[in-house]
Structure formats: structure tokens, C-alpha cells
From TrEMBL:
Annotated protein name in UniProt: Myosin A
Keyword line: Actin-binding, ATP-binding, Motor protein, Myosin, Nucleotide-binding
Keyword Magnesium part of the UniProt annotation: no
GO BP, one annotated term: actin filament organization
Residues spanning the signal sequence: none
Listed InterPro entries: Kinesin_motor_dom_sf, Myosin_head_motor_dom-like, P-loop_NTPase
Amino acid sequence: MASKTTSEELKTATALKKRSSDVHAVDHSGNVYKGFQIWTDLAPSVKEEPDLMFAKCIVQAGTDKGNLTCVQIDPPGFDEPFEVPQANAWNVNSLIDPMTYGDIGMLPHTNIPCVLDFLKVRFMKNQIYTTADPLVVAINPFRDLGNTTLDWIVRYRDTFDLSKLAPHVFYTARRALDNLHAVNKSQTIIVS
């Protein structure tokens, strides 16, 4: 069972949140774009459970330039509209399947809630490796996923086009080895 977040951890997380976002939920006529989604740290579920940090919401009609009228959609269960100042709204990567992108840098929006959601979706589908090129982000699943067998090693060792393969520590090792031979300079891999 996960431990509760301490007040010090919450203060640190709050300090890391970018306080400005370029969210444009309304057109020039003042009408809300249909189905426009945002992340916010002021949603009812976040107030109830601060460990969530962000919730996904749909912007509703009645929104003005200073505040967004929203209804929470993820996690579900809160149907009442609430107000969100622009400073507490972040764009959502709508219609993006995290399984089709292996690199965080390919996302249209790389704000904190988008990156956390991206990593979460990939992790829940047993994709524990993601790149932020040239870095590899690995989330420990605390179980064997069967992705370090000889077949996996051979796949990454023998492929002609490494870019066609999913992020993996073997991908990083292969790139370092290729670079070692291509530029004839020492390579460094930092594990932290």
C-alpha cells in the first residue's frame, strides 16, 4: 500500500507547478470550443485527495477570460461545475495515444500533468520505458515483465533501424555502442 504524501512533499510539488499556461478554451466570439479539456489542480477530487495532483476537466459554457467553468471527467464522480482561474489550468493532449509515442518530446503539450498522465498510461500498459531523448525514463514495475530475455537482447542488438523499436535500456545501450563506433569517442550512461 502506498504511503500518504507528506506536507513537505506537497509543498515541493506545488512549487514545481508552472503557474502560467497558454490555454485558449474560447473562440474570438467568446464561445467555448466543444469538448475542450484541461488539467487543473483545483478540481474536487484533487482537493479531496491531494496525492492526485491534477484532474482532467471539460470546459463549460459560461467561461470568461479570467476563469474557466469546468466539470471534472477524470477521475469520474464529480458532476458539479466549478471555477478554475487560468493560472490553474493546463492543456491536455487530447486524442493522443501514449502507446504510439515513445518520446515525451513528441507530445504537443509537455506540461507536468500531461507528462505524468503520459507516463501513467504507458506504465499501466506495461511500457515502463519512455524517452525524453536522449534520456530514458524507467518506472520500476516491481515485477518481471519478461522484457529482458535473450530474444529482447537480440532484437535490439541486431536491428537495422533502431528508431523502429520501443524505448528500452537496450535501446540506450545500442545507441551508445553505435555512437562509440561512429564518432570514436567514449560514451557515458548514467543510471540514477
